[in-house]
Amino acid sequence: MDTRHLVDREIAPLIDLFPRVDLGSAPIAEIRVKAAETYAILPPPVIVPEELYLPSVHGGPDIPVYLFRPDTIRADAGAILHIHGGGMVMGSVKQMQAGPAMLAATAGVPVVSVEYRLAPEHPFPAPQQDCHSALTWLAGQAETIGFAAGKIIVAGESAGGGLAAALAIMARDLGGPALAGQLLTYPMLDHRTGSDACPHANPVTGEFIWTRAANRFGWTALQGDYTLDDDRRGWFSPSLADDLSNLPPAYIATGSLDLFFDENLDYARRLVAAGVSVDLHSYAGAIHAFNAIPDAALSQRFNGGLLAAAARMTGPAGG
Question: Domain extents for the chain?
């Protein structure tokens, strides 16, 4: 179905900036090079980060992270663990610094963004373990970096949003570290989306930027030889989690034309049914990665809501 006429007119130029790519038609190294060229449209970060290397708590290699420190850190406020997007197979913090830098500067809290290992070279559970290791390290740095230890939240976009949701489940299941909130921007949650097993049949989602074919590629790469036959299913694909209770409050933002629209709404519904506080926002005419056009009115509304939620979730109790 041709859905271009449904795309917000200020967002529509993004379609040509992100040309459709068949992820299965070229070596993954070439795909990553092309993706890096596309990410070059992002603005420079408002904060220059510090690169650090952290130990894995799961027996893996040391993990690079980027620490974004705002000039002024709010008193008694927390910190943010940020996870970048890229379909589980591409992207990097180094290429996508603008988002976590803006989070830090606007919320007035330190932000640590994880350079997690990518599939298919490093399938499940490697990316999740890297993110959990970074959270474990961050939870022990409150005094050193200067933030309130009980107010760490996790944030991410697309695949990063899916990993953020998975990390919230993983941290609960493993007994910590505790999270005060999760900021999920059009999160990649359900490995079935775009496949024959997809529970949704929405004819107007997923035509642009991140398609059904791309989603199948990303999830297949992440799955590797994992057979989804144990209690880690929700760590792999959060929509498969049987139990969503006792998770931190969630802020979920998605687009009405995004491939992830239906799985995002369904996940929000299930969180609410499990007793989790959810702030859900859907943006009409928004395709995947729509906020890459920062001056569009749609993006400004999205950014305003997300940044306000980040400040609220990391704020002092009652703030």
Answer: 4-314
Q: Is position 242 annotated as part of the catalytic site?
A: no
Please identify which of the residues 82, 132, 288, 299 carries the catalytic annotation. Answer: 288
For this structure, is 158 an active site residue? yes
Cβ contacts of residue 260 below 8 Å, gap of 6+? 158, 186, 187, 188, 189, 190, 193, 205, 210, 254, 288
Active site residue 258: yes
Cβ proximity of 180 and 150 under 8 Å: yes
Look up the CATH number of domain 4-314: 3.40.50.1820
Q: Please choose, from the candidates 122, 115, 35, the residue with its C-alpha nearest in 3D space to the C-alpha of residue 81.
A: 115
E-strand ranges in the chain read 50-54, 63-68, 79-83, 111-114, 152-157, 181-185, 250-255, 278-283
CA distance 210 to 38: 14
Distance (Å, whole) CA 258 – CA 294: 17
Q: Kindly name the residue from 92, 113, 133, 158 that is annotated as catalytic.
A: 158
Predicted confidence (pLDDT) per residue in 102-159, tens digit: 999 999 999 999 999 999 999 999 999 999 999 999 999 999 999 999 999 999 999 9
